[in-house]
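seq:
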Amino acid sequence: MIKTLAAQIKEFKKESVLTPIFMVLEVVFETLIPLMMASIIDDGVEAGDMRHIYLVGACMIASALGGLFCGIMGGKFGARASTGFARNLRQAMFDNIQTFSFSNLDKFSTAGLVTRMTTDVTNIQMAYQMLLRICFRAPISMVCAMSMAFFINARLASIYMVALVLLAIVLFFIISRAMKYFQMAFPKYDELNASVQENVSAIRVVKAYVREDYETSRLKKASQAIYDIFLKAEKNVVLNMPVMQFTVYSCILLISWMGAKMIVQRELTTGELMSLMAYCMNILMSLMMVAMIFVMMSMSIASARRISEVLDEKSDLTNPENPVYDIPDGEIEFRNVDFSYYKDENKNVLQEINLKIRAGETVGIIGGTGSSKTTLVNLISRLYDVTKGSVMVGGHDVREYDMDSLRGQVAVVLQKNVLFSGTVLDNLRWGDENATEEECRRVCRLACADEFIEKMPEGYNTYIEQGGSNVSGGQKQRLCIARALLKKPKILILDDSTSAVDTATDAKIRQALAQEIPDTTKLIIAQRVSSVQHADHIIVMEESRINGYGTHEELIETNEIYREVYESQTSGGGDFDEKVEVV
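struct:
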């Protein structure tokens, strides 16, 4: 874990080294000041030597300025190192997430990833800054002050040593109790973020069903869980201050009482007593800082583990040593394919799939909900790897290709259409970032999206809100189809992507695809038979297997499932999930 996180310090190594150096120098200057103060009192004030007072006073000012300069520089470099470290952690996590396969992403919740990149990284940033500054400053300050106290008077300094040991035991007990609560707290942030995320993204549904009170209660419950845990932790941590103050004042009283007696007996000077008082505060405040470090570290350990989980996660899918970059054509073949989402389970969501689709063919795929239609096409662009068998594209196993090259030639219009914040043109250029406006207009005509875009206030420069909330479902689908066409792919997959458009528009889109991209292999997943009946071949999926394969006419004659659905839809509506009895 430490090695994983430390690798992200990168270009901030210099600042990470300079910070503790300046902190040590600051401690050295601060340690000299009480000693010089004792010299002023004993050799200057009591002896009436003004020259000594001025000389040592000047040295004290120089030491104070030196300590101030080192403190400023330590703060400057510490802030730069910690914020840079946090930036690198966020970037490294984001970059690693981009390499994840779908199976990797299934291990993390969206809210959990957001929490790791925000709250957890902030905790690590604060802990790292404390590590560079206080973690070096406090122990060294304590050692220096203790050494100087023993140098002045070992008998009185032994009071510090006893108090230090007792205080360390008490603080360790307090912090160990608080640590377990801090480790429990941060996973609860995932639940809080999940509640907020779901509420905001589904706010229209919440309002439509008048569920504001329910969502409010969910958020209160998640917030209360975090509150309760932190309250228990703080009840332990809050004992630090009274215990510290009791120890400090006890030491001051003991040193004052014993020191006064030693001054009367000429065993100690007034200046030395004043120095011992100053060192007492240095020692005990340093111990307080160490206690704060332990608290912060205990909070950050849980965050560090969660961040390391993301950084250490390796994609299940990797490029071969010598990948193939050129995809000859859009020919697709499934050879004895089985697939399971979880490798340790025997339940396959695809079984014994054998299928060959020639380049340029249009193939429809229909089946009931949960029949693995989407899973089937996801294997083509290698979003998952098969459990058994092989998927061939252009005559090569998809595992032989460079993944970026393969996915660059497979355009997918997902079942759940996604648009991003930006203009219409910005969204279209996800298909080709260098596409001209004329090329964008052309694919929009093919997808029948030009009809509504040209009616928008700013046309193709109209701003699309986050998630495409200012366009309808059908408009969103057509924009996504246009975006896919802009890739000029060898394989085009339409995953139920015309379900929100009317049948006339659906027919226009299919006709445009057939005429404009005849060499592109087109796979159309649909619930409506009318969307696929003109395809070259149609695949009927049922219970993870191919139940039927053929043309519309062949399936009407040979496949009972297809025939029932066709007759139900042509005689009075219905879809593939409705089982009807033909009388």
